[in-house]
Amino acid sequence: MPDIYGILSVGSRALLTQQKAIDVTGQNIANVNTPGYSRQRVVMQASTPITFSPGQMGTGVEATEIQRVYDRFVGSQINTETQSMGRWESRESALQRAELIFNETDGSGLSNAMSEFWNAWQDLATNPSGYAERTVLLSKSETLAQTFNTMADNLVQIQKDCDARISGTVAEINTLAGQIADLNDKIGQVEVAGQDSNDYRDQRDQLLTELAEKIDITTYEGSYGRVSVQIADGRPLVEGSSSWALTTVTNAEGHADVSWMNRDGTAVDITDAIRGGEVKGWLEARDGDVQGYLDRLDELADAIITEVNNLHGAGFGTAIDPLTGTTVTGGNFFAGADASSMGMDAAVAADVRRIAAASTAGAPGDGTQAAAIAELAQQTLMSAGSASFDEFYTSLVSAVGNDVSTASTNRTYQETMVNHLTDYRESVSGVNLDEEMINLVKFQHAYEAAAKLISTVDEMLETVLNMA
User: Fold this and answer.
1) How far is CA 146 from CA 149, 170, 419, in A?
2) 96 is in which domain, residue-wise?
3) Of the candidates 251, 198, 275, the residue with the CA atom closest to the CA atom of residue 31
């Protein structure tokens, strides 16, 4: 039967419950600027009533749960969009570096080098016996070859940098996987006892978002709050308190591919199965975009080398063979077969008289072969006979610009999506200081009222004792 001690118990429960609510409110206020923190609240309910005549009597209030205010669906959406954002950010970064290589605004690019090269041949055709014209042509030819070499080397360097970024990101993924597995263990220990592990869950969700920015993931929550993380067509990265490692393996082209380490120590190549995150962006830039630019640059260099060498080999210079006393045939003008190996033929570089300006031997005033080589600039020898050398290169420069623009547009879109979802998450889970201050005042008044109830009961007990 309820008595004066029952009233004291009601006041005591109320006091402790409101104190817990004040503690949680203080925790929210303290973490207002903590990344990934989800607002918490105390769930209160009336404690079990006592039945007696004429009816049930309440026994006060109790705190049943400290609840984390969190929208799991929004969190999943953030991770999905973050995967795409990471992919486009890394791809854009690599493409912007490639765009600098094809920059033609300062007049020192490949387009200018080709123009001066063809003009030098035209000048030689006008004065085929001129030593100065031959020297200038050699200089412009060396500049053209060096420009091809430099551009190819810079593109290869971007690929190497992508390899380094992939290796670094894989190491970060392994670290994050280990941290998530450790938090899984902590969460399981707390929630197996029937309690909520709110702060650990916030930390884990923050790590999952960081992981999603680096590689595409699929997550599932199992028993006692433990989460499983899968990558690359369902291969496990985290299960419970265990994690798997990724590594990089050098492929046949000398680049870093990504492998998943099985429990038996074998490495499984998952490069083609990666669909998002920074790793995907670096892979796409390295193996797709940059390699494509390099292939087209090699195609252009090879075509110039082949066409110039064919005509030069059929012509004659002004050098005389000391053994036969006859004019030396042109031979090759360029050495190499692609942009990285292109250079001057050693014989031509050593003696500009070997430059074949004439189409017939012993005719120093004949510039027809030089004119024919100069005319190569106007011929449609690229893209199955539909483009000149300059037009082919211009289309390559345009393709680079378009790729950068596409990557930038997609990166901006994904950032907007992530920011929008993050803002929405904050509206649901974030700490609002005004709201917390209102709650603090509300719980403070309730605490004071409970204390007043206990004080009143104390006076009642004193009255009873004095009666005795």
Assistant:
1) 5, 36, 46
2) 75-100+166-283
3) 198
